[in-house]
Design a protein that fits this description.
Layout: H1 2-15, H2 17-22, E1 25-32, H3 39-58, E2 66-73, H4 78-91, E3 96-98, H5 103-115, E4 120-122, E5 137-139, H6 144-159, E6 164-169, H7 173-188, E7 193-199, H8 207-215, E8 220-224, H9 227-239, E9 246-248, H10 257-260, E10 268-272, H11 281-294, H12 300-316, H13 325-335, E11 340-343, E12 346-354, E13 360-366, E14 370-375, E15 378-382
Parallel strand pairs: 1-2, 1-3, 3-4, 4-5, 6-7, 6-8, 8-9, 9-10
Antiparallel strand pairs: 10-14, 11-12, 12-13, 14-15
Family: Belongs to the leucine-binding protein family.
InterPro entries: BCAA_transport, Leu-bd, Leu_Ile_Val-bd, Peripla_BP_I
Domain Leucine-binding protein: 26-357
Length: 383
């Protein structure tokens, strides 16, 4: 009998079945807007995560453990984001949570993750103050405060703008934060503002604001908007004969601008660590893999989620999974800040943010932005 068992064990070892028996699924929560107005971001983000997870699993997983994504639709709404975070953390008992899609939702839901001592990792949240929530809050999306000054500087260099009008959404954490950072950058660069106009999420007619802007004769329009409002703003501006450049935040950095704004999409300046025209080996590989899997070009948000999955996997390689969920969540939190990565979005490292109490809190992205302008249906890198 003993001899038979020994032979069976030897056979299992030879076929790798014993190793498989000891491998564990690493359950990762994904809370993204897959319906509603923010789904144009959330769908690409989900695709980026899935592509990276599939690649990692096909290459043997993380220390032999398979990544399993628990995907939930938070609809781009604060209340839904809170509910989804509670479900993933306390009911589904995921190791960590990626998301939510919008900064508004992150400000509402991330405190749930912090209280539950579970990493919340944002890949599209760029508003001020997100990572000050606590030391379990991470993001690899570069803040508007880091990107917008460089975007304005490069735009001014190439277009010679002397004065600008400002248009922003005043009922959203992301677009309001974008406005605050645009305002500071313009003041620092001593570029005067001819007028400041606002709109609300869900608005469809912007002609009144644009007519006021046109009367002030600006050299460019600084626009802090999500693409659902930003694209029709560009269309209506061109219809009114306003043909000056637009300077946008990362909410406007999407290939969807070419579908939504069509012939009015030229002349949009944006900054981001990622560009579809950046021909590094890692980015070229990502773009080809994304197109092959989804039959569409990726955007900044897909690239950031793709890299984020690899960053998390790199951290997990240094975590000895014990089966004690609280201990494993803390070990992942401790491993993440040490990760450096070079992926589709370039060289990446974390830097610690400060909390509102002046003490160290969560972690922001440390990356250099690339500034691009839309020309003839594509983004062109400018320096």
């Amino acid at each position: 009998m003993k001899s038979t068992m020994t032979k069976l064990l030897s056979a299992l070892v030879a076929t790798g079945m014993v190793a498989a028996a000891h491998a564990a699924d690493l359950k990762i929560g994904v809370a993204e807007a897959l319906s509603g107005g923010a789904a144009q971001y959330g769908a690409a983000i989900k695709n980026g995560f899935q592509l990276a997870a599939d690649e990692i699993n096909q290459a043997g997983g993380v220390n032999g453990n398979k990544l399993v994504l628990q995907i939930e639709d938070e609809q781009g709404k604060k209340e839904e984001a809170i509910n989804v975070f509670k479900k993933l953390i306390f009911q589904d008992k995921v190791l960590m949570v990626f998301g939510p899609t919008l900064s508004n939702s992150a400000q509402a839901a991330d405190p749930i993750a912090q209280a539950g001592k579970t990493v919340a990792f944002g890949t599209s949240n760029t508003a001020d103050g997100i990572t000050s929530i606590g030391d379990y809050i991470f993001r690899n999306s570069v803040t508007e405060a880091d990107v917008l000054p460089e975007t304005i500087k490069v735009t001014a260099k190439h277009t010679g703008i002397k004065k600008v009008a400002v248009l922003y959404g005043n009922d959203d954490v992301f677009t309001k934060s974008g406005y605050d950072n645009f305002k500071k950058a313009l003041e620092d660069l001593k570029i005067p503002t001819t007028t400041t106009e606002t709109f609300a999420k869900g608005d469809v007619d912007f002609k009144a604001q644009l007519t006021k802007i046109k009367a002030t004769n600006p050299d460019a329009i600084v626009l802090s908007a999500l693409i659902a409002e930003g694209a029709p703003i560009m269309v209506q501006a061109r219809q009114l004969g306003i043909n000056v450049p637009f300077i946008g935040g990362n909410g406007m950095n999407s290939v969807k601008i070419f579908d939504l704004a069509k012939g009015s999409s030229d002349g949009l300046w944006v900054g981001s660590p990622w560009s579809i025209e950046n021909n590094t080996p890692a980015n070229t590989k990502f773009i080809a893999a994304y197109k092959a899997k989804y039959n569409v070009a990726p955007d900044q948000f897909a690239a950031q989620s793709y890299d984020a999955m690899y960053i998390a996997a790199d951290a997990l390689k240094n975590v000895k999974i014990s089966g004690n969920l609280e201990a494993d969540r803390k070990a992942l939190r401790d491993a993440l800040p040490k990760v450096t990565h070079e992926g589709a979005t370039g060289k990446f490292a974390f830097r610690q943010a400060m909390g509102k109490n002046g003490k160290p809190a969560g972690y922001d992205a440390q990356q250099a932005p690339i500034v691009s302008v839309t020309k003839g249906g594509k983004y062109v890198i400018e320096k």
